[in-house]
Amino acid sequence: MGIVDEHGKILKKEIVNYEREFVQIEDIFDPINDFLENNISDDIECIGVGIPGISSDTLINYTCNLPLRDIEMRDYIKTHLPIYVANDASCATIAEYQVVDGRLFSNYALVTFGTGIGSGIIINGLLYNGTTGAAGEIGHMVIDKEGIPCKCGRRGCFEKYASVSALKRMTELDDIKEIFYLSERNEIVQRVLDYYLENVAEGLANLINMYDVEMIVIGGSLAEYGEKFMPKLKALVASKIYNKYTYDLNMKVATLKNDAGIIGAALLDQYL
Q1: Of 65, 130, 170, 220, which one has the fewest beta carbons inside 10 Å?
Q2: Are residues 248 and 186 located together in one domain of the fold?
Q3: Measured between alpha carbons, how far is 5 from 8 in angstroms, rounded to an integer?
Q4: Does residue 96 belong to any structural domain of this protein?
């Protein structure tokens, strides 16, 4: 949570850590209301909320990894201010697109790799939400129809093979820093990492083939280790895209890291 000015600068930030894997609704909204009560002022113009799921207007329709379904935000957030809600990956995309890259590109995507995989897509300078607000759910693009079961009900979803959670499962290691450290010293870990990057490249190439974006930004906890994998990943993606002849692949790691979601949520009123 945080307070952000009109230029995307964070003025105040507060982090809430949830100890349980599956939290109750009150656990999510009580800290938000406490933060608002302690920090609200006449300078605050609106409230932006990023969620790991699908929303329409101020209604959370569905989240795969949290117990939130058909939740009207105005029933839980105590405020008279306008509320804007979007997917958390879309929020991060807005922040990187506007604050870091200054809207230099017309077509742009950010993909977050963490517990799951999400993405935000800018088309012709506008955030693309789709018909129901579910655009960008690249984590649930199937890459193996007979593959690992996913919480969404399908099999072989991209995030079961290319999320940070998937990498930890494949290596049987819980620390991503340790995984990259060992990959330079242990042949087995290196082979697993190579397989993982192949999976990541498959999904990113599919995204490029669908939307023909000018820039892809890698976000989430994976981005912290970009210098260790980006050259190999870019080469893999370049080998898999359909338009190998005129497409100029621009790909980089996110700059704002964990602050991107807060900043982008605060800027939602400019995009929704």
Answers
A1: 130
A2: yes
A3: 6
A4: no
| CATH number of the domain within which 188 lies | 3.30.420.40
CA distances from 36 to 1, 79, 91 (A): 10, 8, 20
Domain around 55: 2-90+260-270
Beta strands in 148-220 (DSSP E): 215-220
DSSP letter string, 116-127: SEEEEEEETTEE
Cα-Cα-Cα-Cα torsion 166, 167, 168, 171, nearest 10 degrees, comes to: 120
Q: Which run of H or E residues covers position 49?
A: strand 47-51
Asked if residue 235 lies in contact with residue 249, where contact means CB atoms within 8 angstroms, the answer is no
Q: Is the pTM of this model over 0.85?
A: yes
Tokens of 84: 């804007």
Query: Domain check: are 27 and 135 in the same one?
Result: no
Burial annotation 211-249 (CB, 10 A radius, 16+ → b, else e): bebbbbbbbbbbbebeeebbeebbebbbebbeeeeeeeb
Is position 95 within any domain? no
Q: What is the pLDDT of residues 225-248, one digit of tens each?
A: 999 999 999 999 999 999 988 788
For residue range 14-42, what is the model confidence (pLDDT) as tens digits?
A: 988 766 565 678 788 898 999 999 998 88
